[in-house]
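Listing S7. Sequence submitted for prediction.
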Amino acid sequence: MMPYKIAILSSTGGTNLQSFIDARDRGELENIEICCLITDKALCGAAQKARDAKIKVYFIDPVPVTRETYDQSVADTLTYFNVDLVVLGGYMKILGPSILERFQGKILNIHPSLLPKFAGGMNKSVHQAVLDAGEAETGMTIHYVNEVVDGGEILLQKKVAVEKGDTVESLKTKVQALEKEWYPKVVKMLAEGKNPKELTS
């Protein structure tokens, strides 16, 4: 059987990437190949984690080129590997039309809130917004990517309580634990032709 190929895009520390590496090493991603990491930050933690795990790293520098040229380079790299799924994990760039059109219905993102609440934010700003709003619960959302930021079809949400004394850092830790558990599971289900919506929240 041909492997189900995924590419991971990241600009940050690589927490989501590491969850896939760990799941792979535990034998939980049978027939799934992490074919490459694409990053716009040459020295980010994700790039180092990928190298340590013997995953090919492609640094595509967005600085000296137009946005369209950068996006085209990303799309061409994904096409070269003939990926089945593009997995965003801490990727701090909005995907352009050349990527979205070529990989429509094949791009996943994970967001650290219960969308549609707190859409558009990133990382700690989302957790701060949750605290500022006095929310009783928060969580994470795994969704398809389309032209609307954080607006694609939701596949899975998992919740956690916001408790008295929680801080941005404590919420981040709680939500990242959910991400680490569920992101590889959702990708595995897609690789097996299953619907992640069958997983209860």
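Caption to Listing S7: primary sequence and predicted structure tokens for the chain studied. The first helix runs from residue 15 to 25. The chain has a mean pLDDT of 94.
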